[in-house]
Design brief:
The protein is of the alpha+beta class. The chain is 13% helix and 22% strand. A four-stranded antiparallel β-sheet has the order 4-5-7-6, covered by helices on one side. The model has no long low-confidence stretch (mean pLDDT 91).
Length: 190
């Protein structure tokens, strides 16, 4: 970024340019001492589909086995398990058909694995962004549209779309983004 901004400062219109630097998510550090091996708690013969990756899995359970698998997973420490229709609303996928029967999410810094595939990664993402600040994306903005020295409260990445449309004087298509949640970072735009 340093090299990029050094070069771009040489442009004659540099002072007219707006910049946004962001990421799609944060990262959480992992430790091998915080691994949960899921097949220690459930019989994989009771499962039809295992979908996902550390720290989130969705499970399709064989007919008649939902309550057995759910109750077994509810007892596992450092992990949350929800049935298809009872995920917290803030996760925004409680009724999506891709969530299958059960959704498992590890606590921040904990890993979910199966005995046949224990990962060695040092970090990951996918934890609950409401309860784990490490999941928050970075966001830096500068240019004539933005207030100098202003610090915004955490916000949803979907709010960037209407923000960029506003800066570019475009009418945004309908989306889940809300400019009103982050408009205070902007100077008055004509």
């Amino acid at each position: 970024l340093g090299q990029y901004f050094t070069a771009i400062r040489r442009l004659p219109n540099f002072k007219q340019l707006n910049f946004i630097i962001t990421s799609d998510h944060g990262m959480q550090t992992l430790s091998p001492e915080r691994n949960i091996i899921l097949d220690k708690y459930v019989d994989t013969a009771d499962l039809k589909i295992i979908s996902g990756n550390n720290p989130i899995y969705n499970l399709k359970v064989k007919h008649g086995k939902l309550e057995v698998v759910y109750q077994a997973l509810k007892k596992v420490a450092h992990m949350h398990v929800w049935k298809h229709d009872s995920l917290p609303k803030h996760l925004h996928y409680g009724h999506n058909p891709r969530t299958l029967d059960l959704t498992l999410v590890a606590d921040p810094g904990w890993s979910l694995y199966w005995s046949w595939h224990v990962g060695t990664e040092k970090g990951t993402h996918g934890y609950d962004p409401v309860t784990d600040r490490a999941m928050h994306a970075i966001f830096y903005a500068a240019g004539p549209a933005f207030k100098r020295g202003y610090q915004e409260h955490p916000f949803k990445n979907v709010d960037l779309y209407p923000l960029m449309a506003k800066i570019l004087h475009l009418k945004p298509a309908p989306s889940d983004g809300n400019l009103n949640d982050i408009k205070d970072m902007l100077k008055k735009i004509k």
